[in-house]
């Protein structure tokens, strides 16, 4: 039976990518070495790093003046690292709080200076994206999280501001086209649309660096990582290699423009059923619904266990909502095929028929 993987992360990857990655674990490119044991200074892995950086620049149309890094630590490491590099000594920064991950970013940044939370959707359990807010002109940057995996909301527009813009795009990177030129820093954990956990993608505007007036530890200094081309310390080689394979798969598919079209079709299919079905209802504001992580509940909680049991029977994995909110979450990252979404929709229809 085919498994339909809706896990929020680490998440589904293309089958062809996993096959190539598995082969490289045994023997990479006929070298007789595993990609797991190969020196990160070897010609073979330097080629992997160079190819990975080039693919990011190509797929996201990264402008001149930006550098692409692959670092360790996941997006959580960037909550502090981004502030350390961009929050001026005795300066302040603005943050929009739309859920767990932006709240954690705020917590870490407060260790370094004055943080102004200019907008929050906490009043309604983070089920919408704030819209009526003003970005102060005297802040060093504005930080926000594009897509909120736990609560199923997503920014549909880039905030209007003249200050530097920093963004956590961990859960929707490469799912839709992005104007990179609007940002000074983008960071994203790999384990949604790029590859296995372990690597962190950084896209940084070079002339924005070196202005904080702080003494920055070497391992946390973007400028040093740029100068060393992501090789200041041993990079997460296997994760980066798998990211490269995934980006090659995406390029062959037609690139970000094509995957955005497919992702919107998947989201439309599921949201249409959520809205039609008398047993279910969505939890996020309609205008702010995520195309990556639709969240929904059964109107009758007593049916939850039965629906989860039925989902397992048809091969659906990872549909249970985050432990902090309950309900259901259908994480539909790039590699999830629309046929898998149809399986979930068919199950919901049958569940309604049986339980009316």
Short synopsis of the structure:
It contains nine helices and 14 strands. Helix 3 crosses helix 4 and helix 7 packs parallel to helix 9.
Structure report:
This protein is 35% helix and 16% strand. The chain has 356 residues and is an alpha/beta fold. The strands form four sheets. The protein has a seven-stranded mixed beta sheet, sandwiched between helices. Helix 1 runs antiparallel to helix 6 and helix 6 packs across helix 7. The longest helix is centred in the last third of the chain and has 22 residues.
Shape: globular
The helical percent reads: 25-40%
Q: Could you tell me the mean pLDDT?
A: 97
Task: Tell me the name of the CATH homologous superfamily of the largest domain.
Answer: Type I PLP-dependent aspartate aminotransferase-like (Major domain)
Give the number of DSSP strands. Answer: 14
Side by side, the strands of the main sheet go 2-10-9-8-5-3-4
Distance between the termini: 28 Å
Give the second-level CATH assignment, the architecture of the largest domain: 3-Layer(aba) Sandwich
CATH fold category name of the largest domain: Aspartate Aminotransferase, domain 2
Spans where pLDDT lies below 50 across 5 or more residues: none
Helical/strand content category = alpha/beta
H and E string:
EHHEHEHEEEEEEEHHHEEHEEH
Total count of domains: 2
Query: Can you summarize the main beta sheet?
Result: 7 strands, mixed
